[in-house]
Specification:
The strands form 6 sheets. Strands 1-22-21-20-19 form a 5-stranded mixed sheet, with no helix packed on it. A 4-stranded antiparallel sheet has the order 2-25-24-23, with no helix packed on it. The protein has a 4-stranded antiparallel sheet with strand order 3-4-5-6, with no helix packed on it. The chain is globular, with a radius of gyration of 17 Å. It has one domain: Neuraminidase, CATH 2.120.10.30. The protein has no helices and 25 strands. It is mainly beta.
Length: about 290
């Protein structure tokens, strides 16, 4: 098993999440600042602002899609301006991460509410919503505990989501896989990896079908292959590893969104958000 150290490529964020490589640049959201950013070289550009953006992605034609988590709205944008908005509030109390497939269909995972009224708790049952933009959105997976990072394999046939679970009374997580049907439905639910410490936060596939995932308070990014951890990227100063994306000119740069540890792990107290990077052996893949 190999381990590497990272370098900082951008800072000034609070809670950076959902990095996506598109059109020669890295795009991400800062959930606490309510902003969407584009990073290209040493330049950082504020693209758009929302109440609490939780995810960003792109259609095959380049249209940007942004999830506003607390308002439960999925927006499409053109030149930074909202073109269309789709309200998902009837389906879920809180939207979270998103991945867009080669059809331009968006899979958005969503937190549930537990018996105490808490959103995204360890007992709340969440779901995955399929948004095709040309038909009514629909729930394609249910009974997921606080679903978080989400990604689709290079061949488009497997969707993986990070799920928070209780393991013998301790917090842990697992990667849950589904087979993707032609109509976007999900089936054949299965476990594709177990994270002993931390969360299955933002994740991405590489060209070999490996899965890089941020483990949050596990303080590292882990690469899973065939259900086993085969590589680790540890963060200095016990920083939280929030989400991962592969990009760069040859798609061999692993970008990791990180933030300073918060007292008690409270996301509202996160500070010093950064994008860190490290070169890896296996590249990512072109989405379309």
């Amino acid at each position: 098993m190999s381990e590497s150290s990272t370098r900082t490529v951008a800072g000034g964020f609070l809670l950076p999440e959902c990095p996506r490589w598109h059109d020669g640049a890295l795009w991400l959201v800062d959930m606490r600042r309510g902003s969407v950013h584009r990073l290209a070289g040493d330049a950082s550009e504020l693209v758009a602002s929302f109440d609490r953006p939780s995810a960003v992605g792109f259609w095959p034609d380049g249209t940007m899609v942004v999830v506003d988590g607390t308002k439960r709205i999925v927006h499409t944008l053109h030149e930074g301006r909202v073109r269309e908005s789709l309200d998902l509030s009837r389906l879920t109390p809180h939207l979270n991460d998103m991945v867009i497939d080669r059809n331009g269909w968006a899979y958005v995972d969503a937190f549930g509410i537990d018996e105490n009224g808490s959103v995204g708790s360890w007992t709340a049952e969440g779901c995955i919503v399929l948004v095709t933009f040309d038909s009514a959105p629909r729930v394609v997976a249910e009974n997921l505990v606080a679903p978080n990072g989400i990604g689709i394999s290079p061949d488009g046939r497997t969707l993986v989501v990070g799920e928070a679970v209780n393991q013998a009374g301790a917090r842990g997580a697992q990667l849950v896989g589904f087979t993707v049907a032609e109509d976007g439905s999900l089936s054949q639910r299965r476990i594709m990896g177990t994270i002993a410490r931390g969360l299955g936060d933002g994740l991405c596939f590489d060209a070999e079908g490996g899965i890089w995932v941020g483990t949050a308070w596990g303080h590292e990014a882990q690469r899973f292959l065939d259900g086993e951890v085969v590589e680790r990227i540890s963060l200095e100063d016990r920083r939280w590893a929030l989400a991962c994306a592969l990009g760069g000119p040859d798609l061999r740069t692993l970008f990791i969104c990180t933030t300073a540890a918060a007292p008690g792990g409270d996301p509202s107290e996160f500070t010093d958000g950064r994008v860190e990077a490290v070169e890896v052996r296996v590249p990512g893949f072109a989405a379309w």
